[in-house]
Design goal:
815 residues; alpha+beta; TIM Barrel; Jelly Rolls; 4 domains; eight-stranded parallel β-barrel; six-stranded antiparallel beta sheet; 14 helices; 46 strands; 35% strand
């Protein structure tokens, strides 16, 4: 047993301490930090998608989940909203974020880009770039390269001045220039490859003292490292483009971002763990970053076209910063098991051997003689008993067993033993009284009320300069026909269109994420004489990807009105324009701005384009807070003048439900009392049915079975003389339940030792069941914040069905 303790003492010394910086280099196996090869797990947490008061908790939970590195993009358009005018305050305080990462003993990976995509409006590029003469984004184009280099240099110098690179003793061990450029490179023809070489040379020339990388760029110029993005880099990664570069996985997508009108994409903890183990075993992977580890919130107008305000809510840490179980816990156990293999993984070449038609062993022998093995079953349907080194192991379908000593299973990717958690939204305040609300009707502008004029249809993005989602197109015309009914037809490349004739709404249309343009064809009634047409063109975020982003066009493209006798084309006509809404211009979502308009008492007859205002007190406690907008249509919401994002409840998924109902209100946005809530709704929303909800984990569930019973080793940490050591002990599966902070287990909803059917999402007592199950679990757990129940017939007073494989499933309520 002594050799185990010695091994883990060395391993703990390598991975257990804080961040002290040091030289960062690499070879064909891994990054090398201060002379030591490292197996690193990383997670993406974006500082603008959370708040400074959330950062310490998010980073702490990431560290507790077994991460070594926090990765973030740098968001150019929030830092330089106008040329030479910089903002690094509040949620944009990147230096403060990196320093918090360092304070908690983790490394940082800085993806400068500065084009980032990231489902962020305009891919993170500031829109003012569009107005630079002759500019072509992301190509061998001098105007763009000047601005890109200027901003990249600005960020690097900021990091240097704060001593944040590992070469200075700071936490940043890795930087990225550009982002998934290979996806668009061919579109730029001869201007693509020189740009790649220039970007690499420019970045390396900034002399950060740490390596640079380019994700999804198979020909990344030396010494820049090419990396993989995607869900299956264990299968798809072609590998480093030089034998002297390590295998890095920059984005392991823990779910997939969601757009309005689309269903949530779920990715299981088992699939993520399988691909990570496969990447490490088959691709010599030594760095895995989860994108996202915490997605957070697209506050304000930062989301790209059609993307939800909630971002990667199904990540290991959800939008509110709470642990998604079992994803968070299963990955934590994976990280611990792989770290136990670090020495042979990082010093030995793998040896592959077949264990069956779809089964194999990948074995690593370390320089010190240590051995680690990965037993792979690629069969998607059948479990497989295999013989390895004179022992029998049963491998579940599509799984990898990790053996840190080539004998004992420490982890299997398909066997989830961590608890499940159920998130609940609890209404704490309802706004169901008409006396609580005031409203202001957004005026519909007519041609004579506009000052911006053109004899053609203007392109929307270039007209609004991204200061608003909204652009009014207005014109007037004389109708001298006895036929009062005509057909209005509008073709648009914007996302939403609302048509008004003489101030009255006559129709709406919208596109979708995969088909963003929209068209409207409606019968309208016209006055015999002068008529005013007002067309509200709406963007739901700017595009974020693709070549020649500067050439994209949006807004109205063709407008006609036809009656029985003739068709009039108004595409080239005298148009009047208004950028944005009056309420936006006056900032009536703020305390000061709200005094600039006359608010009226709430009128239950809903009118489109209405602003609603109320005040509320913050819910007690520390649970996260959300605004339930399930009764509203489409618009934007502000709390105390801060936008919590766009909402679009009326755009349903194919299953017939809204893509998002709850909208995050960070606690830091709130005062104890008198919080100002303002919404603008473009449709026919009903504010009387919205509520303030708190979010908590109200149920926890654990499920283990005999499939976990082969001899397993676990390790526990202990400290002596300031050094962390690891020791092992025999482990048998157990259900471990843990309620959130300040909550205890109040009730056992289900307990069965025997053959319960189903899982934590749906269960029932099976044909074999210990009658003592509930009583024994209640005695062990009720009134406690956490408890542990061994999967053993001895714990339940005897074996209820000898010779039959058994399981233990417990579901508990937390209060």
């Amino acid at each position: 047993m002594v050799w185990w303790l010695c091994w883990f003492a060395v391993l703990a010394a390598a991975i257990g301490g804080g961040v002290y910086g040091g030289d960062v280099t690499y070879d064909g196996r891994s990054l090398i930090i201060d002379g030591q090869r490292r197996m690193l797990f990383s997670g993406s947490i974006h500082y603008p998608r959370s708040t400074p008061d959330m950062w310490p908790s998010l980073i702490a939970k990431a560290k507790d989940g077994g991460l070594d590195v926090i990765q973030t993009y740098v968001f150019w358009n929030v830092h330089e909203p106008q040329p030479g005018q910089y903002d690094f305050s509040g949620r944009h305080d990147i230096v403060g974020f990196i320093k918090e990462v360092q304070a908690q003993g983790l490394y940082a990976s800085l993806r400068i880009g500065p084009f980032i995509e990231s489902e962020w409006s305009y891919g993170g590029l500031p829109f003012w770039l569009h107005d630079i003469p002759g500019i072509v984004y992301r190509s061998d184009n001098e105007p763009f390269k000047i601005e890109m280099q200027k901003f990249t240099t600005k960020i690097v110098q900021m990091m240097k001045s704060e001593g944040l690179y590992a070469s200075q003793g700071g936490p940043i061990i890795l930087s990225q220039i550009e982002n998934e450029y290979q996806n668009v490179e061919k579109a730029f023809h001869e201007k693509g490859p020189p740009y790649v070489r220039w970007a690499a040379q420019m970045a390396v020339g900034l002399d950060t003292g740490v390596p640079w990388m380019m994700c999804k760029q198979d020909d990344a110029p030396d010494p820049v490292i090419n990396t993989c993005n995607g869900m299956k880099c264990g299968e798809t990664f072609v590998g480093p483009n030089s034998p002297n570069k390590p295998s890095l996985w920059t984005e392991n997508w823990t779910t997939y971002y969601q757009a309005y009108g689309e269903d949530t994409t779920l990715r299981s903890a088992e699939d993520i763990a399988f691909q990570v183990a496969l990447f490490i075993a088959k691709k010599n992977g030594s760095f895995v970053n989860y994108y996202m580890y915490h997605g957070g919130t697209n506050f304000g107008r930062t989301a790209s076209a059609y993307v939800l305000t909630s971002y990667y809510d199904q990540a290991p840490l959800d939008e509110y910063g709470m642990k998604r179980q079992p994803k968070w816990g299963h990955l934590k156990e994976l990280h611990a098991a792989i770290k136990l293999c670090s020495e042979p993984l990082l010093s030995g070449a793998p040896i592959n051997s077949s264990l069956g038609p779809q089964q194999e062993a990948i074995v690593f022998h370390g320089n010190s003689g240590k051995c680690a093995a990965f037993l792979l079953n690629s069969n998607e349907r059948e479990k497989a008993p295999v013989q390895f080194q004179n022992s029998t192991y049963e491998l579940p379908p599509t799984s990898i067993s990790i053996l840190p000593d080539c004998k004992t299973v420490a982890f299997n990717t398909a066997k989830v033993s961590t608890q499940y958690g159920t998130r609940s939204m609890v209404p704490t305040l309802k706004f169901n009284s008409i006396d609580r609300w005031e409203e202001f009707h957004e005026p519909v502008p007519w041609f004579d009320e506009t000052s911006l004029r053109s004899d053609k249809l203007l392109e929307q993005m270039n007209t609004t300069k991204d200061v608003s989602d909204y652009l009014w197109y207005t014109f007037r015309f004389q109708h001298n026909s006895s036929d009062a009914q005509s057909v209005l037809k509008v073709n648009s490349l914007a996302h939403v269109l609302r048509a008004f004739v003489n101030g009255a709404l006559v129709g709406s249309a919208h596109g979708a994420h995969k088909n963003p343009s929209c068209s409207l064809e409606n019968i309208i009634s016209l006055n015999n004489g002068m008529n005013n047409i007002s067309l509200l063109s709406i963007m739901v975020g700017l595009p974020d990807s693709g070549a020649f982003l500067e050439r994209r066009v949006t807004g109205l493209r063709r407008v006609t009105i036809a009656d029985k006798k003739e068709l009039e084309n108004f595409t080239n006509y005298s148009w009047g324009y208004q950028v944005g809404l009056l309420g936006e211009k006056l900032q009536i979502y703020t305390v000061d701005g709200s005094s600039k308009v006359q608010w009226n008492k709430f009128d239950s007859s809903s009118i489109p384009l209405t602003w609603y205002k109320t005040v509320f007190d913050a819910p007690g406690g520390n649970d996260p807070v959300a605004l339930n907008l399930g009764s509203m249509g489409k618009g934007e919401a502000w709390v105390n003048g801060q936008s919590i994002g766009r909402y679009w409840v009326s755009f349903h998924t194919p299953a017939g439900s809204p893509s998002q109902i709850w909208y995050n209100i960070p606690r830091s946005f709130l005062k104890p009392t008198g919080n100002l809530l303002v919404l603008v709704d473009e449709e026919f929303g009903n504010p009387l049915d919205i509520s303030i909800d708190t979010i908590s984990i109200t149920k926890v569930c654990g499920h283990v079975s005999d499939s976990h019973l082969p001899p397993v080793v676990s390790w526990k940490s202990y400290y002596q003389n300031g050094m962390r050591y690891e020791k092992h002990h025999d482990w048998r599966p157990k259900v471990e339940l843990h309620c959130p902070s300040k909550r205890n287990i109040s009730r056992i909803l289900f307990a069965s030792y025997g053959t319960p059917s189903g899982d934590c999402s749906s269960y029932a007592v099976g044909s074999c069941h210990s009658s003592n199950s509930r009583a024994i679990v209640e005695k062990a757990c009720i009134g406690k914040s956490k408890c542990s129940i061994p999967h053993s017939y001895k714990s339940f007073g005897g074996d209820p069905c000898p010779g039959i494989p058994k399981a233990l499933l417990v579901d508990a309520q937390c209060e």
